[in-house]
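Helix-turn-helix domain protein
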Amino acid sequence: MILMSSSSAETLYGSPGTKQSSSDTPSQTLFGLRALLIEFADQGVSNAQLLADSGLTPHQLSDPQFLISRNQRLLIYRNAQRLTTRSDVALTAGARQRISDFCVFGFAMASCPTLGSALDLGFRYLPRIGHLLQFSSHVEGDLGILSSHNPWSLGDDLPFATEIWRSSINRLLGQILEAPFPSVRMLFPYPAPSHWRAYEQTFGCPVEFDAGVDEWHYDARAQDQELPNANPMAVQIFQTFWKQLLIEDVDYQNLIPSITTILMSQHGNCKNIDSLAERFGISVRTLHRRLAAEGVTYQSIVDDVRRRLALRYLEQTSMTTDQIAERVGFSDAANFRKAFKRWTGRTSGEMRRPQP
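Tokens:
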């Protein structure tokens, strides 16, 4: 079944932008590109053709520590669209992925005890393995929702980048589970492409285009499912290699969006900055100093996330103000009401009340 939505509302998960130069900063691994190269090799397209004008050579593709920039990945995707004879090539390339194509990262996820812990590991490192948008996750009842931030920043590259990314991760998660990933619905912010039927065949669930948001809904009850290849010792070993080889330095240019992503996944409830600093492998003092250099404070990021979440719940749910206050990390509803008025200039009741 394909659903068409007339809504054009922007997703609530837009995040603070990064410096312009970050698009040219080598910060992403080559993991996951092998499937695209193989797909095009079958079409008679050489690696050199696919890498044209990117500044990359086929030899560099075999170096596990080699990093590329966001713009280099986008240029490869544009070459792929220009050279292909198939409109659904991004979906078919993603479906070729194997756990080994994601190297240490893929094996670490597969060795996690549960699907939930594998997803948590994945969310931490998605930007480093090729995801071009900031990403967040939260659960509403039995529904897990994966959201990409500000998808329109990719412009005309959005459909291709979204197709190869979702198809790749869908394949990776299916292999980790040794069963289909329990997707419930896929929502895409762009119009249905000519090959829209291939979406349902690839993802095995209803899809919606022109949805105004870029979201992946799945059965959150599966988070407790034990993984068939769970191995706690292997997870520690793989994570050690990952950290030593690929993320020795904190990517400070993406620090604010990364914090935003973490807070969104925790519904804005992250009072312990110590644990956040530990997650980045830096001291609390260094974290405060880096944020100050960007002209923001940790509390301002927390407030922005809580504001976004509160607006989402007010506009899209029937939860009471007390319930929303608790959901976004306030122990007292009165304090939430004051904060909401300060953030938006309006009360929560005025925001929910239909405008004349």
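The two ends are 37 Å apart (CA to CA).
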